[in-house]
Amino acid sequence: MMKRVMDWFARPVVRFVHLRLGLSPDRLTWLAFGASAAAAAAIALRQVGAGLALMAAGQVLDGLDGGVAREFGLASERGHRLDTLLDRASETLIFLGFAAARLVPLTLALVTIIAVLLLTTVCDRSGLDPGMKRVALYFGRWVPYPALFTLIFGVNLAAYVIGLLVIDCRFQLRMDALGGDLDTVASRAAAGEPSAISRQPSAISWLRARGAARGPGTPEPSRPRSELTADG
Q1: I need a labelling partner for 163 at 20 to 30 A (CA). Which of 101, 146, 207, 213 fits?
Q2: What is the pLDDT of residues 155-212, one digit of tens each?
Q3: How far is the C-alpha of 128 from the C-alpha of 168, rounded, in Å?
Q4: What is the pLDDT of residue 48?
């Protein structure tokens, strides 16, 4: 619902960007990544104000790519993967920029990056993404950056764990709808299949098939001398 409201407000800008400027969603995604990379460089040089301004520009462009895709029916799985990949790359560069400027310890920046990447692995399936990544960094004027990074780390790690629980609960519900847990469903499926023994032709059927293959009037193959001797 919120996304539809935002799309309605941004529609004039979205149409201008696509129809007048000819920018596709992919181009906007790459422009957003370029702005984020410039933001990371500025922050690493301790130009935090300029870096945050460039970061904001990157986030605006990042929002426009999805708006253009939805407005003009250009959304695709490939575009979604590209957007996600460059979003994570942008955040990684910006977080490392703060570490390079010695505004946060490198270890804290790295574990925050890991928490964000972990959440990314499950958020599409769980539908849970609090969006607490870059936005918290705008409050660095009032809150120390180590505290903000700790907050980003904690929120994303908690969302990752909760997302795993959501996925597991949904899986268990599907298993219950099928009549049991995974082992029970697998056992029932196996029980419904014909056994390996029942699929093997009987000896009589094999002999009949062999006789039919020889055709009527075909003499029985001669028996070995050893068998004749054994029969007396």
Answers
A1: 146
A2: 999 999 999 999 999 998 988 888 765 566 555 556 665 544 444 455 555 556 666 5
A3: 14
A4: 96
- 46 sits in the region (left: phi over 0; alpha: psi -120 to 50; else beta) called left
From residue 31, give the alpha-carbon distance in Å to each of 36, 62, 63, 87, 131. 9, 8, 11, 12, 21
Mean pLDDT of 113-126: 94
- 57-69 pLDDT tens trace: 999 999 898 888 8
Q: How confident is the model at residue 1 (pLDDT cuts 50, 70, 90)?
A: low
- Angstrom distances, CA of residue 64 to CA of 38, 50, 75, 111: 19, 21, 12, 29
Q: Which amino acid is at 26?
A: D
158 CB neighbour count, 10 Å cutoff:
15
Tokens describing residue 223 = 């028996």
pTM to 2 decimal places: 0.74
Distance (Å, whole) CA 117 – CA 216? 74
CA Rg value for the chain: 33
Compute CA 52 distance to the chain's CA centroid, rounded to the nearest angstrom. Answer: 29
Distances (CA, A) of 198 to 162, 187, 193: 47, 18, 10
Q: How far is CA 203 from the centre of its chain?
A: 53
**Amino acid of residue 218:** T
Q: Which amino acid is at 11?
A: R
Tokens of 158: 């908690």
